[in-house]
Write a structure and sequence with these properties.
Mean pLDDT: 94
Structural class: mainly alpha
Number of strands: 2
Length: 284
């Protein structure tokens, strides 16, 4: 048996071990979320499962935690990782508002923000500006703990293992599909009683596939897991805490807004094509 064949077999053993451990840990978290009470602490348990699975896998395979790409030497990719989700989400929501799939501005949300900030008598534009600034700074940092739990496992460990046995394009598809499926029980919890469950799962999967390309590109270019963690945090905050809450929904909104409608998946797919081609040109 050649050394390459032997190495590939060992890599596949590591990949399968990681996925098995992740499945076990995630099953515990999902049981708590679905059967006990879907509190944030159980969701947090789910989000750190990829990191814990990677740590256990490394231990079993006699590898150190220091073998993960912890260092950060190229700040350029941190900046790009921060700005990229803001750009594509902004484009998506501008289209949503222009096409009438939702309207600006949800005054009730702005009033709630003004109460939270202690700015009840302030101008609404000022309230929005202050809250958006705080969410995209303090909020992103606070959320980083959760997204780091995912990204240590998915980008810090998993895609580096996949890279040993497959091409960039293949690993983005494989990792994206697995990452999407991992979220399906949560989507079922949110939309299980809806006739559009499969639509929302499909939209989310398309979005995740696109994001997987972008995250893999930034991870490999920086050789660090930090750009992915920051990107993931900004993505979550900007959609869930800013754009969707500020949008007044209508009968068409469910098909287009948020991570489970089709506008963001369409835009992320276009971005993914750009990064896919860019990775090919750079022999990534």
């Amino acid at each position: 048996m050649s050394k390459t064949t032997s190495d590939n077999k060992e890599t596949w053993k590591t990949i399968i071990l990681f996925l098995a451990i992740l499945t076990a840990l995630s099953s515990i978290a999902y049981y708590a979320i679905l059967k006990l009470n879907p509190t944030s602490i159980y969701v947090g348990l789910l989000m750190i499962s990829p990191a814990v699975a990677s740590f256990v896998t490394l231990k079993i395979r006699n590898r150190t935690l220091s073998s993960l790409p912890w260092s950060l030497k190229k700040m350029k990719y941190v900046k790009l990782a921060y700005l990229t989700p803001i750009l594509y989400i902004s484009i998506a929501y501008v289209f949503i508002w222009l096409f009438g799939f939702g309207d600006l501005i949800n005054i009730e949300r702005v009033l709630k923000w003004s109460e939270e900030l202690g700015m009840e008598n302030a101008n609404q534009t000022l309230v929005i500006a202050v809250m958006v600034f705080l969410l995209l700074t303090v909020g992103v940092i606070k959320n980083l703990g959760s997204t780091l739990g995912e990204e240590i496992g998915w980008r810090g460990f998993f895609i580096f293992e996949l890279r040993k046995v497959m091409s960039f394009k293949a690993l983005t598809i494989i990792s994206g599909i697995i990452w999407a499926i991992w979220h399906f029980p949560i989507i079922n919890l949110m939309y299980g009683g809806s006739e559009y469950l499969l639509l929302h799962m499909g939209a989310f999967t398309i979005m995740i596939l696109g994001i997987s390309v972008i995250l893999a590109y930034y991870t490999f270019k920086s050789n660090s897991l930090w750009p992915a963690a920051i990107y993931h945090s900004v993505h979550n905050i900007y959609i869930q805490k800013i754009c969707t809450p500020l949008t007044i929904t209508n009968e068409n909104s469910t098909f287009w807004i948020d991570e489970y409608g089709f506008m963001i998946p369409i835009i992320t797919t276009l971005f993914a094509i750009y990064f896919w081609r860019k990775a090919g040109k750079e022999n990534l």
